[in-house]
Amino acid sequence: IKDFENGLLSETLDFQNGTVSVEIFFEEGTGDRAGLLVRASKPVRNFYDFTGYQVTLNPSSKILRLRRHNKDGDAIPDVKCDIPTGRWFTLEVNLTGSVLDIYLDGKSVLSYEDISGAIDKGTVGLCSVRRPVKFRNMSITIGGQKKSLPFIHTGEMMEISGMWRPVQRGTAKGSFAFVTNGQFLGNQSQQ
């Protein structure tokens, strides 16, 4: 899974039909939304410039939001539902052809058939939009075969300003640090 601005995107998995599942933990309090990316591909300049579906949950407003991204974020009506805070729960998206079935803790929340431009395949990912969130136990089931998608920490700690994003291509290695001596303006600068 690879850094993808406000989330992570798998580089190794491309699928058409299957079920994506992840456990999510939201702290109580305010914030925006977080969730899954499915049938995602073509990240170009930023988090919103990709092709795929974004399934996000906002516990504060109790809204599940499904968006189709294909250069624009095609609006699909939001769904009001109870979204847990302070405990782990499961978000599951079943993709069959042009139909997306979305479940929270095994309960059906939305069944949507995309009849006007369905995205047929892509990878999976996680996203967070101005919302602290924890994820664990991500998996995908294709043709009855369940595959875990583990989160592997590389052990590298990077000092990255909220104004910047780390980029690494191929075998390039970089370092990122806050500079607190000789900065141009303010208390620190990015190196």
What would your notes on this structure say?
By secondary structure, the chain is mainly beta. The protein is 0% helix and 47% strand. The strands form 3 sheets. Strands 1, 2, 4, 5, 6, 7, 8 and 12 form an 8-stranded antiparallel sheet that branches. A 6-stranded antiparallel sheet has the order 11-10-9-3-13-14, with no helix packed on it. A hairpin with a 2-residue loop joins β9 and β10 (99-104). The radius of gyration is 18 Å and the shape is globular. Mean pLDDT is 81; it is low at 1-5.
Summarize the structure.
With 191 residues, the protein is an all-beta fold.
Number of helices: 0
Count of beta strands: 16
Instruction: Please give the largest β-sheet.
Output: 8 strands, antiparallel
Which consecutive residue ranges, at least 5 long each, have pLDDT under 50?
1-5
The gross shape turns out to be globular
How large a portion of the residues is in β-strands, by DSSP E? over 45%
Which structural category fits the helices and strands?
mainly beta
User: Kindly state the mean pLDDT as a whole number?
Assistant: 81
Order of helices and strands: EEEEEEEEEEEEEEEE
* Cα radius of gyration in angstroms: 18 Å
- Span between termini: 25 Å
Helix content: under 10%
Topology record:
Blueprint: E1 2-3, E2 7-9, E3 18-25, E4 33-41, E5 51-58, E6 63-70, E7 73-75, E8 79-80, E9 88-96, E10 99-104, E11 107-113, E12 123-129, E13 134-142, E14 145-148, E15 178-179, E16 189-190
Antiparallel strand pairs: 1-2, 2-12, 3-9, 3-13, 4-5, 4-12, 5-6, 6-7, 6-8, 9-10, 10-11, 13-14, 15-16
